[in-house]
Amino acid sequence: MITERAAVNEQIMLANKEGDKQFLTFMMAGEEYGMDILAVQEIRGWEEVTAIPNSPRYVNGAINLRGTIVPIIDLRIRFGLPQIEYGALTVVIVVSVVIKGMQKIMGLVVDAVSDVYSINEETAKDVPDFQDSENSQFVQGLVNVGEKMVVLLNLKKF
Q1: pTM, to two decimals
Q2: Rounded CA Rg of the chain
């Protein structure tokens, strides 16, 4: 029993090597995206929102989250992906980021939550330079996890 526990602890230590950060990954249009898990405040199922007049098309509206008004951003629309009907797996990832010394809270609508990975950010590859793509500003880097590629997002650019 003790040796099993020691083996499990050793695996956890190896998985969380120095320099590794944990990323929550989610799916959109068949691709996997990741964000720093420390920015994630909570994950909620889809619920109706209150529309905000004259807001950008990608802002679905806002919700009242325990007294805090949280804008809800549809990442499919923000990234120029085709819109789909929200389903049972559609979730809102509520994130909190500090921008210019101020805490900003927003909800991001995604197709489904996928996994949590420990990733060393230094292994992330730069995004190819597509000068006509405004979406590249949202991407922090690309990283291989097993056989798949994960797009790491820079939440401060949203």
Answers
A1: 0.80
A2: 17
Q: What is the signed CA dihedral for 54, 60, 62, 65, rounded to 10 degrees?
A: -170
Return the closest-CA partner of residue 94 out of 122, 132, 133, 66.
66
User: Can you read off the two tokens belonging to residue 100?
Assistant: 């210019």
pLDDT digit string (tens) for 43-76? 999 999 999 999 999 999 999 999 999 999 999 9
**Single-letter amino acid, residue 70:** V
Nearest-angstrom CA–CA distance, 148 and 129: 21
Report the candidate in 133, 131, 135, 129 with the shortest Cα–Cα distance to residue 154: 135
Asked if residue 26 lies in contact with residue 111, where contact means CB atoms within 8 angstroms, the answer is yes
Contacts of 96 (CB under 8 A, 6+ apart): 39, 41, 103, 104, 105
Count other Cβ atoms within 10 Å, centred on residue 152.
21
